[in-house]
Every structure is written in structure tokens, then in C-alpha cells.
Specification:
The structure is a single chain. This protein is mostly beta strands and 84 residues long. It contains one helix and six strands. It has a four-stranded antiparallel β-sheet with strand order 1-2-3-4. A two-stranded antiparallel ribbon has the order 5-6. A hairpin with a 4-residue loop joins strand 2 and strand 3. The radius of gyration is 14 Å and the shape is globular.
């Protein structure tokens, strides 16, 4: 499996109407299941993935996009029919 830290856009909004970017520990298993945890210690300690944080990527739309302001690459996962 592949694992490591990535940033994900949070689901809530701040006082100013923006969604925050959160650092999370992601694990991509051999069966194409993507899960994320608060941090590596949570994963290694046998913790459960964060809520609604297990996606079967084989049934999702996955693509990349460029952030024009910060010149960063993003991987976008659209939960069209993802099994969460």
C-alpha cells in the first residue's frame, strides 16, 4: 500500500466563508481503497479512519487540477458513487 501525509479540503467553512485545508494521513490499499486518519499515530495505533473517510477509488472520478494562485497540483476525488 501507499501512505503518507496529504492536505484535504475541510468540509466546514470559517467565519470568512472559506474551507480550510487540513493535513491528514492517507493510506491507499492494494484494493484501491483510500482511507485517511488524523495523523500517522492514529493509523499505526489501530485507530479507525475519520468519519466518511474510506473511498473505493475504482468507482470514483479521480483527476488532477492546478491551483492557479498557489501553483500547486491537486488530486480531486469526486464521490459520484463512491462507497464510503
Amino acid at each position: 500500500c501507499f501512505e503518507g501525509y496529504l492536505f484535504k479540503r475541510g468540509g466546514g467553512t470559517s467565519v470568512f466563508g472559506r474551507k480550510n485545508w487540513l493535513e491528514r494521513y492517507f493510506v491507499l490499499a492494494a484494493d484501491s481503497t483510500l482511507q485517511y486518519y488524523r495523523d500517522k499515530d492514529s493509523y499505526l495505533g489501530g485507530g479507525r479512519p475519520l468519519k466518511d473517510a474510506a473511498y473505493q477509488l475504482s468507482s470514483c472520478r479521480v483527476y488532477t487540477a492546478k491551483d492557479k494562485i498557489k501553483d500547486l497540483d491537486h488530486i480531486i476525488i469526486e464521490p459520484m458513487s463512491c462507497e464510503a
